[in-house]
Amino acid sequence: MATQDEANAILPTRTRRQKRSQTATLVLMGATPFAVLGLDPLHSEVRVFRDLQACQTALPGAQDYCETLNAEAAERHPSIAPKYTSRHQCESDFAHVTVNSSCENGWCGIDDLSVCERTADGYYRPPFSGFLVDQAILDGTYEGTKPAPESLDDRQLQPVYSISDETLSSSGDEGQGSTYRSHTPFLWHYVMANGQYLGNQNLRDPVTRTKSQLAANTSRTFTGTSQRGGFGSTARQSMQAARS
Amino acid sequence: MVKRTFSALTLVACLFTTVTTQAETTISALAEDLQQRLTQSPETLRWLKPNKDEPLAHTDLGIDPETCEAPVLARAGTHPRFLVRCVNRALVNFRVTDIQTLTSWAYSDGDWSTGQIIAIRGIDNSPTSRYSSRQVEYKTVWHKGEPAGPYERSLTVLSETDLRKLAKFWNSFDTGELPVLESLEQWRQLTWPDAVVGLRRNGQLLLQHGTLAGTSDLLEELSSKDALPPFARGLIRPVKKVWRGTTPPGEPMFLLHSLRANGTDYALALSDVTAGAASQNMQRLSAGLPYELVFLPIERNL
Q1: Within an 8 Å CB–CB cutoff, is residue B213 touching chain A?
Q2: How far B164 CA sits from the closest chain A CA (Å)?
Q3: Domains, chain B
Q4: Complex ipTM, two decimals?
Q5: Would the pLDDT of A27 be above 60?
């Protein structure tokens, strides 16, 4: 049995714990009505479009709007895209065949490939490979709401990049051997500029990600030739997290 | 009148012989000479059946040399050798059958030695009814021993069009002109991506599993002046299919010609002697030259 002194010593701790759990409960209770109403303040649903045409096919009534969304995403590309000091390292992460196996049986043309581009300041970056748009923005277009693309933040509109399947299949990082065996340049996946995995090349459905995952950040620069801790590593980890 | 015509023909023949002697090192001149012998004086030539040692005339074998395709080079340099494919129709077991022969002709001491028939392939094209026919292939008879490598085997199944393209390629290839092998060294210095098996002059790539990192360096090098000698269509790397994992392709060689036979891609390439001898799945098509002509299957890991 605890003495009075021991009880006095324990009480403040207990009170602190109680306060912490009460706070947590209040936070959860605060979020519950949103969840019940179908509103999730922590997550967003986004749609990925490979190009302008894909957007226009999905939104036949908003052809011009797709053009402006695509143009705005392309404009954001130079400031958001990951940058590399080494072209070899950039290609190691991103180079792949863009067309769906059309040249698997023969020779591939240069236009069938996606390789890194040189920036004005001497770095290398993956090419603009499409864009993602907040699903709520797209839903709004059916009601005639079309907010100016430049007014949308990065979580609502940003360029996306295509990463090679080889990069995601590599098991060089943190000893996490992947079961992937198709190291083919004909397969690729969509990723965000911050390395967040979005889906494979056949992605059509909306994707749900936390708002923090969708934050684009500014362009990150990768130096050297080591893959460890690089863009590919981030993409690999986020792919594994998304699939688990 | 008859005598005068004969004299004129003799003169033309003498003139041609002189021209042939002067240009006998070129592949096209030798190929033309062989074709003329086959069509104009086949009785002066002799054939050996597969695995037999009795020289026979074309009449004994039922070969009509008029039906033969143009000779195709099989070995350049000292003791050049050519392959000639002929197809003759015959009645086998009361069925109309196309008999295809592939004969190897070696040229030495200014003359053609006895032709060795390497393969005899029979294809039954008899109609099964008034409106349809079925193709039945008999088992090919092969000559046991040299020469019968992948090159000869692919030539037995190559389409007529591709065979003519191959003959045309060889006729335009001048072995007398020394190829620039120094530029091959600069290509070897580059880090080739594992996925790139071949690179054409126009920038097209032949790919397999693996990374494409370094592709831009290759394309950049290709765009530089004199990146490839005029005779090269591009670059090719030997690769062998493995059932588990992938094998990185070998050292690049100059791609001269490519063909497809029986579902497999093949390449004719030029390299230096060391590189050519290193790989086992390559067939040498030259001897005594400062470079090596090789024939290799392109078995990509996909």
Answers
A1: yes
A2: 21
A3: 2-158 (3.40.630), 182-298 (no CATH)
A4: 0.74
A5: no
